What we know:
The chain is α/β, with parallel strands linked by helices. Strands 6, 7, 8 and 9 form a four-stranded mixed β-sheet that branches. The protein has a four-stranded antiparallel β-sheet with strand order 16-15-17-18. The longest helix has 39 residues. A hairpin with a 6-residue loop joins strand 15 and strand 16. It has three domains: 60 residues, Trypsin Inhibitor V, Chain A; 59 residues, Trypsin Inhibitor V, Chain A (2-Layer Sandwich); 140 residues, no CATH class. The protein contains five helices and 18 strands. It starts with a helix and ends with a strand. The model has no long low-confidence stretch (mean pLDDT 85).
Amino acid sequence: MDDNKDYENENESKSSKIKNIFKKKPHISIKFSESYDKFQTSIPAFLGICLCAFALMCFAAFAIFFVNVKGPEKVLVPNVVGKNLEDALLEMQVKELYSKISLRYSDLPGDEGTILDQSPDAGAIVKGYSRVSLVVSRGVIVDKVDEYTGMNIEDLRMKLQTLFAGQTKPLIVLAEPEYKPDASDAGTILEQDPPAGTKISEPVTVQLVVSRGPNYENTKAPYLIGQSVNDLLQIITRSKLVFDITSHKASDDEKPGTVVDQQAFDDEFVPNYTRVAVEMALPSGEYNDNIYGIYQEKVADYPYPVPMKIEAYPAEGNSYTLLSFNHPGGMVTVPYAVPKGTTLELTVVNKVVSKKTVN
């Protein structure tokens, strides 16, 4: 029983303590007036700090602006044309200028590495650290004479023309060749002077001996009377003669489109590429679905026969070669019988020299 009483007394004591805790009110004291006074006294100092920070920022911004506006000092571009590349670069470096280099072949042997041109020109006023373009010589295209014997002279001319294209003074010039009969094909270079391997220190003139071709001397003149246009074209292809062909309107007793006259010679054989006069009787209008005529063109004279051809381009259908032959140049005359509207094209040494449309 005593134990139970003690337990009840202990519980009552704890309950009374808890009630007393909730009955107590917390005491919180905030002094607003004191904090407001402190804030009022710190406003001038805060504003002063802000103004100082703003002034410092403005000063820094103006300093940066004026430094950028001032930029690098202006300098005088030096004259480096004719100087070697190393000296030119040193001069540019002293002036605080940058160099942009490009290479170009020159006409003068021995000037490799020399400044040929500059931009801006010497004496120009530019800002420091600007770029100056320098054109530097990479030397001459060739420094010695090559081996030309065995080449075709037309191929050599084309090669040298391409090699020195754009050069004001080509280093190799071909003299007028000497021609002679030889077993080699016509146009083949037999001899040269100076020989291959000769060093070039200044422009050099090359003398050549060129083949006129085998059996150049004589050929037999063919009999042409009564030959048609197609027959005559085949003879021209095979022959080593030059036919100067003219025509007239066929009369009633003449067969249109045939040879009615030719030049006669005292000897059976005549020198190769002798000019032979030939007269043809041609119809005045369309005949057998073809237009007849003589293709005539004046071309350059050559010291030996060069390849020529006439291509036909019909208004309908595929193109074809009307005639392929060798000719020494001058007046070229070729008979034709082609459909109306066909375009004929004369090519000399792979170069088109003239065109004609048949109407």
